[in-house]
Amino acid sequence: MIKAADLPAIIPVFPLPGALLLPRGRLPLHIFEPRYLAMIEDCMKTPGRLIGMIQPREVPGTGEKRLNAIGCAGRLTGFSETEDGRYMITLTGISRFRVIEEVQGFTPYRRCNVDWAPFSRDLGEAEQDRAFDRDAFLDLLARYFQAMQLSSDWSSLKEAEAELLINSLSMLCPFAPEDKQALLEAPSLSTRRETLVTLMEFALRGGGEDEVMQ
After folding, report:
1. Which residues make beta-bridge pairs with 95?
2. Which of 38, 79, 197, 214 is the 20 to 30 Å CA partner of 150?
3. Is this model's pTM higher than 0.85 or not?
């Protein structure tokens, strides 16, 4: 387990719209751009093997894209290489962070100076959601999956711990990037579950296909 003292002040970041990583979640990624291949190679030489996943956002009226203020760092825990030199990796979520500033340098990928302090609880045990009504939640989820023509292993969903269930669905469901960011920034597991419920209910009410589909 990584401790707060082990978290570096500067980390490489991978800006990817719609990609959400949460603490203790697992995110598979397919890496093929040369700058990100270099990032993976450099990452594997570091003790923590940390990469920050962060979503870019468009500045209204300018077309300019900037990084969101908050992202989540993951430890590289799975790696394989294809015959044509691409990497298939898995990141395991460690902690969210707030960007202080982007660091200029000689790497082909982006790096940021980050603050971990606001999210110290991410390093602890799995979070609990005392108000979680599993039956009602799974009923809504079944209707959402049917409407979105998604499939899942329902037996594993019924048995999963609340944090694993809520965070996995937050990462996997086809929400818009701004909705994914809201799920990432939720201050507690119960708030994330409430946000997730709101997004699914909005989709079921026909709240605009491009609002929920990527």
Report:
1. 73
2. 79
3. yes
